Amino acid sequence: MIPGIILMLLGLVIHSQLHDLTFIQQQLLGYLPPLLGGLAIILCISFNQGRLLLTTVNLLCLFLLIQNQLQSSLSQPANFVLFSCLSLLFPLLQLFINFIPERGLSSRWLIRHLPVIVSGYLFFWVAAQNHLLSDWFDGLPMGLIQMYSDPYLLSQWAVSLFAVTTLLGLIILWFRATLADACLVIITVTIAAMLALFSKSSISVLCSTLGLVLILFTVLFNSYSMAFIDELTGLPGRRALENTLRSAGRHYTLGMVDIDHFKKFNDTYGHDVGDQVLKMVASQMKQAARGATVFRYGGEEFTIVFKGMDEVRAIEIAEKVRTTIAAYPMRIRDKNRPENEKQGRQLRQRSGRSEDTAEVTISIGLCEKTRAHKDSQAVIKQADEALYLAKRQGRNRSVACHIAQPRTRRAATS
Ligand SMILES: Nc1nc2c(ncn2[C@@H]2O[C@H](COP(=O)(O)OP(=O)(O)OP(=O)(O)O)[C@@H](O)[C@H]2O)c(=O)[nH]1
């Protein structure tokens, strides 16, 4: 959320500078949201970001209707009716978008969701074109006529709806914890601020631009994560490793790590527990390997890059990583355990059964880059050979290529 909030605060600074722009510059600024919106739509489709696509369309439709129909005073009944209705329509549609699960884009998905967003705006645009809106003024309920707090222009109903949408967005963010959900919350708040400060000049251009920039950043960051971050463990993946090794220079040590007897975990406890083990190993390695970077190489294999370190220094850190994992009490959760942690504890106490713990160990093969290595692949190959040696010598140990065998270590902690 923090970069988004900073971006929005930056908006306040930019707004104070907008008065100095010439008329032509202000006109040109008006083209920015459609351009950014078009770009965001292309990127959302390319990177399968359905909910961000719908939010872009929601924001863009709102902006276009404001630009086309709301450029004169709100004291005109037609304008007031349109403004009041739009300030309900936007949060209502965001509320709908919040609840949609992210399942990627398909033409069926688009046919099901896109008309919901566009039809509301189309309805008000047709009504405005046919001069019907002013006739609805007398029928407006009090909740839409009375402003929540002077001098802000949001009605009581609009404030309530924006508050509900923001709150639900925050709750969903708490559970799903995705970047897209954070982006949706910030955009809802930004548009609420835009409508509340609607009388300020260029406010709709500025807020729409900032909202679309935020969507673009989110889509790009999400696609970066998809390409470089391993979804299960949250560690950088193989592609990120290749990038790191390309820029690691000539002085580094590389460690190949493999979980011992991992197949047995899967066979005994199931694939889900296997995944839990992978997550635990990843997070413990990340914490213990201070000064080095951990990657998921693939399957149950990890790689540690010790930049600027020789094998002697690297094996000290590798040993710390290995002993930390060997000492970690991996709790195996019963598939039938209750969701609630407290209930689970009570049940175990009653049955006199404690939660199963399993010992997880890893083997590590290390290789320092020397002149003899043609490229990083040669270093990986040799580290793999050291790993193979560690497995053959009984597992749960670290072996370094250039350190004499007596220095091969096996921890007393295991
Ligand atoms: N749960 C889970 N299992 C995986 C994943 N990727 C690979 N595996 C499993 O990891 C196991 C790897 O086993 P092996 O390479 O035979 O070796 P091992 O059992 O770890 O034994 P040693 O390496 O000889 O100590 C296989 O059963 C794979 O199915 C994953 O993402 N999740």
UniProtKB/TrEMBL annotation:
- Transmembrane helix: present as a keyword of the record? yes
Sequence segments annotated as region (Disordered): 332-358
Annotated signal sequence is none
Query: rRNA-binding as a keyword?
Result: no
Q: Write out the coiled-coil annotation as residue ranges.
A: none
Q: Which UniProt keywords apply?
A: Membrane, Transmembrane, Transmembrane helix
Q: Where is the GGDEF domain?
A: 250-403
As its record notes, the protein acts as a catalyst of: 2 GTP = 3',3'-c-di-GMP + 2 diphosphate
Give the protein's recorded name.
Answer: diguanylate cyclase
Originating organism = Amphritea atlantica
